[in-house]
Fold this protein.
Amino acid sequence: MKITGRTILITGGSAGIGLAFALKFLELGNQVIVTGRRQTVLDEVKAKYPKLHTIQGDVADPVQIASLATRVKAEYPRLDVLMNNAGIMLHKNLKVPATDLDGLMAEMNINVGGVIRMTSAFIDILAANKGTVINVSSGLAFVPLPSAPIYCATKAAIHSYTQSLRFQLEETGVEVIELMPPAVKTELSAEIAEGDGIALMTADQLVKQSFASLKTGALEIRPGQAKQLALMRRLAPDFINRQLWKASKKLVPVGLG
Ligand SMILES: NC(=O)c1ccc[n+]([C@@H]2O[C@H](COP(=O)([O-])OP(=O)(O)OC[C@H]3O[C@@H](n4cnc5c(N)ncnc54)[C@H](OP(=O)(O)O)[C@@H]3O)[C@@H](O)[C@H]2O)c1
């Protein structure tokens, strides 16, 4: 991927992995726009990093996506990178009925619906500008962390969707990259502790490893333990599945669906 002189939109770029990528892209001489749901957080980010452009928007809401697309296409006609990064992770107890059946789909709406809708809403400008789509899935697309069953299913779905997207866009000149991070220290992973084979890297370490791969033109980036998960899934699937269950059993909420 060409990593300078681009105009880049990062969903969920107000914190964690998205913000770390935004700052690196900024440092490399790109124009970067970040989104998030909370205006207060975006305001704090803007005050700290005035060169970042911020726009409020929820990727789970089709109406907000449509207005974001209209605004970005008008204000940033050279937009040529979309990084679908916004995501949430919830630990769930599947043994009892959920109290909120609609809420049960929150991760599907954001992690899957958000990526699919955002890509569709921006595909025309990305094709016109021979751009790049970066979908952030997870090493958990390969092997689930059973305490977060829906989250892992969303990441497996994005892994599959991204492969199809790459084939369909082959002749359009749009490059499709999948970033599959391992466990990274952010708000999203706050409940996950090191141990039982799980190691957490910092967002800056993720950025460093990912940019090394982006520069080589890699289309599927599996930093740190994500690479090991992919390998273990092939070599010893039963072992690695059970290992992740052992590591995550204590994260299953007691009594809550
Ligand atoms: N951390 C990890 O261990 C890890 C590992 C593998 C993959 N990932 C993936 O990396 C991505 C970023 O995760 P992270 O760890 O950086 O999470 P994070 O620190 O919790 O940050 C999430 C960002 O997304 C935004 N966001 C959440 N829901 C949104 C929505 N509906 N619409 C727009 N923005 C939304 C948040 O801002 P608001 O809350 O204000 O909206 C925030 O800016 C996710 O896709 C996650 O699945 C993370």
The chain has eight helices and seven strands. The mean pLDDT is 97. Residues 11-12, 14-18, 35-38, 41, 58-60, 85-89, 110, 114, 136, 138, 181, 183-184, 186-189 surround NAP (CB under 6 Å). The domain at 7-251 is CATH 3.40.50.720 (Rossmann fold).
